[in-house]
Amino acid sequence: MASSSPYFLYLILIFLLPVYVVAQTYQKIELGSSLTAALNMNSSWRSPSGDFAFGFQQIRAGEFLLAIWFDNIPEKTIIWSPPIDGEKLVEEGSKIQLSEDGQFRLTDARGEKLWDAQLTGSGNVLYAAMFDTGNFVLVSQDSNLWESFNQPTDTIVPTQIMKRDSKLVARYAEKNYSRGRFRFLMQGDGNLVFYVTSFLWDTVDLINRAYWASNTVNQGYQFVFNQSGYIYLADNNGSILYSFTSKETSSTNYYQRAILEYDGVLRHYVYPKTTNGITRNPMNWSMQGSEPSNICDIKETQGSGACGYNSYCSFGDDQRPKCSCPPGYSFFDPDDKMRGCKQDFDTLGCNGNHDADDFELREMANMDWPQTDYAYFKGVTEDWCRQTCLTDCFCPLAVFKDDECTMKKFPLSNGRMDPGLGGKTLIKMRKDNSKNKSPDKATLWLVSRLSYWKRRMLQPSRANQGTSLRSFPFKELEEATNKFKEELGKGACSTVYRGVLDTGNKNMVAIKKLDKMMTESELEFQAEIRAISKTNHKNLVQLLGFCNEGQHRLLVYEYMSNGSLASYLFGNLRPSWYQRAQIAFGTARGLVYLHEECSNQIIHCDIKPQNILLDDSLTARISDFGLAKLLKTGQTRTVTAIRGTKGYVAPEWFKNKPVTIKVDVYSFGILLLELICCRRSFEQDLEDENQMILADWAYDCYEEGRLYLLVQEDEEAIQDIKRVERFVMIAIWCIQDDPFLRPTMKRVSQMLEGAVEVPRPPSIPSVNV
């Protein structure tokens, strides 16, 4: 049997030999040596064979990259550069030096440190070495104190091993060596995983999701690229768990590399060597294998997919992803087609100027934008689907397939074209004779968070559902609450009870009962009826009906199973950082709807955690419109008595000035700080009196660069400190004393979601509590 053959076992052992048993030659670099970034200078240290070089490679005029590259081929292909955040290119005159005391440091032309090698182990550096394997090493008496092989960037080469907790980071673009979106990780748990990060969160390196995994948790030990050209994942016994490439390519005859490219695919390339004057053809890099097989299948829940927003991904003849714009759209940056597309015509017009006659639909086949659905209709015709999308200002396109119509929302994400998808995509465009101007960048994001509930009314079978409120007899509500026994919450002049309405399926409801029949309460009741009956949005609590019988005034709402944000945020089971961010997004979207998308603009006037309820999925739902103030068309401000809750009330209330939607912006700013810090806006019992008023403390932490203090017991938030900083900056803008300095909720929502930059906020006055 083959398994008993000593020769067979010998071959297996050779195949699985770790790379460090291979004989290696190197060039020794003495202490005190240095290289300077300059044209036409000796700016590299070569390995003995000349296959590899370490030094400065000019990328653009006057700009250089510290790198290791293949030096015996015309392309000078780079395999390593130091892990510097942001732009990695350095100016002419920059220097890499191995100092007499063993420090290996990169400095700019002015001598400022840009990067240095973090040494491990004991002993002093005696010299550096450039090996023929492509590994650059700092050597002590007993061990290697630093190796480029242990700090890979986007590439590995034969004899290189990726151990647990190591990764490759794709570059931003083919000729841009800054960090890109894609990661390849040999995780600490043994799983080999591809991740995609999001451009949405500015500089936050937020991992969205895995788009490929080896599924080898507790098994994988190391990812190996051996001398024979095999690339595989092995366990701690050397057994192969997953083979990336099974075709042997001798490193004697070929240069080889595996690179996580900027499009998110790990590809294995080979390049023929010249041996004894004989040149093998072709003299270029040819691909041997790649993973994953279809990068266009990425589906990000918080990002754009393989290509940018409003674009779609398809495979070309070269098996590389191709990013394209649908009709009526063009690239944000023609030189960076993965950034996405913008509309070439005016917005779809959800501000009252939308006219279906101004638009037409262009057809394309086999396309989809998964996870951007906002409405789905079954059993309809294509003509119905067309007309519905044309008349719906929120619909940039619809997909019709097998009597099913799916409408998509802005921004379009995860777009792909594939012959296997089928169906017909109907893309809305303005007609040639209609208004045709490019929208500002923020407009593309305005409609990014639309409500399914508002559009569901378009479905023929539900055309009249939910358009009017039900009037309940008092006796029915009394029975539904078991004579008002189970109290959910209490306000100044109302109490909320849990109830069950016998509508055939025993619906749970929340019933708000006004306790005092005074003039103010009557006005409050009428205000809430007027306000909520005109609204319908996924981030607002839905009013189901009311009772106006004799002295009884009650409101019937859908029941929110997770109660108020106040009880959730300030209780023992606090929401995670991700959940708190989602609650901030949802509350902001609800306020955008009230301020800008209703038939009449509504100022809520009492935004606070007690009035933000949470449904089964912890979606934020704004409630309690008892203090709401409606503005007539064209009206922007109103004069009214002081409303709201202490600690959340904008300063203009106390100055008897006209109030605008900016009072809600102020209250949201305080709420946002509470969401960030998981604490109330005022806590009198704190030992440090400087921390009692949350807004003042948050501003001090921001100014002093100590934002970690706000979330110091929240590891998830600390890992996402850039977003914490952005949220704090937004909150500071929201609580400005001058309402004209506060942004609109639309702009707040865009800043929260990373669609627009957040400028440095001004100082804030002391906050009244």
UniProtKB/TrEMBL annotation:
<keyword id="KW-0675">Receptor</keyword>
<dbReference type="InterPro" id="IPR011009">
    <property type="entry name" value="Kinase-like_dom_sf"/>
</dbReference>
<dbReference type="InterPro" id="IPR051343">
    <property type="entry name" value="G-type_lectin_kinases/EP1-like"/>
</dbReference>
<dbReference type="GO" id="GO:0016020">
    <property type="term" value="C:membrane"/>
</dbReference>
<keyword id="KW-0430">Lectin</keyword>
<keyword id="KW-0325">Glycoprotein</keyword>
<keyword id="KW-0732">Signal</keyword>
<keyword id="KW-0245">EGF-like domain</keyword>
<dbReference type="GO" id="GO:0005524">
    <property type="term" value="F:ATP binding"/>
</dbReference>
<comment type="similarity">
    <text>Belongs to the protein kinase superfamily. Ser/Thr protein kinase family.</text>
</comment>
<dbReference type="InterPro" id="IPR036426">
    <property type="entry name" value="Bulb-type_lectin_dom_sf"/>
</dbReference>
<protein>
    <recommendedName>
        <fullName>Receptor-like serine/threonine-protein kinase</fullName>
        <ecNumber>2.7.11.1</ecNumber>
    </recommendedName>
</protein>
<keyword id="KW-0067">ATP-binding</keyword>
<dbReference type="GO" id="GO:0004674">
    <property type="term" value="F:protein serine/threonine kinase activity"/>
</dbReference>
<dbReference type="InterPro" id="IPR000719">
    <property type="entry name" value="Prot_kinase_dom"/>
</dbReference>
<keyword id="KW-0547">Nucleotide-binding</keyword>
<keyword id="KW-0723">Serine/threonine-protein kinase</keyword>
<keyword id="KW-0472">Membrane</keyword>
<feature type="domain" description="EGF-like">
    <location>
        <begin position="297"/>
        <end position="335"/>
    </location>
</feature>
<keyword id="KW-1133">Transmembrane helix</keyword>
<keyword id="KW-0812">Transmembrane</keyword>
<keyword id="KW-1015">Disulfide bond</keyword>
<dbReference type="Pfam" id="PF00069">
    <property type="entry name" value="Pkinase"/>
</dbReference>
<dbReference type="GO" id="GO:0030246">
    <property type="term" value="F:carbohydrate binding"/>
</dbReference>
<dbReference type="InterPro" id="IPR024171">
    <property type="entry name" value="SRK-like_kinase"/>
</dbReference>
<dbReference type="Pfam" id="PF01453">
    <property type="entry name" value="B_lectin"/>
</dbReference>
<dbReference type="InterPro" id="IPR008271">
    <property type="entry name" value="Ser/Thr_kinase_AS"/>
</dbReference>
<feature type="domain" description="Protein kinase">
    <location>
        <begin position="482"/>
        <end position="752"/>
    </location>
</feature>
<keyword id="KW-0808">Transferase</keyword>
<dbReference type="InterPro" id="IPR000742">
    <property type="entry name" value="EGF"/>
</dbReference>
<feature type="signal peptide">
    <location>
        <begin position="1"/>
        <end position="23"/>
    </location>
</feature>
<feature type="domain" description="Bulb-type lectin">
    <location>
        <begin position="32"/>
        <end position="151"/>
    </location>
</feature>
<keyword id="KW-0418">Kinase</keyword>
<dbReference type="InterPro" id="IPR001480">
    <property type="entry name" value="Bulb-type_lectin_dom"/>
</dbReference>
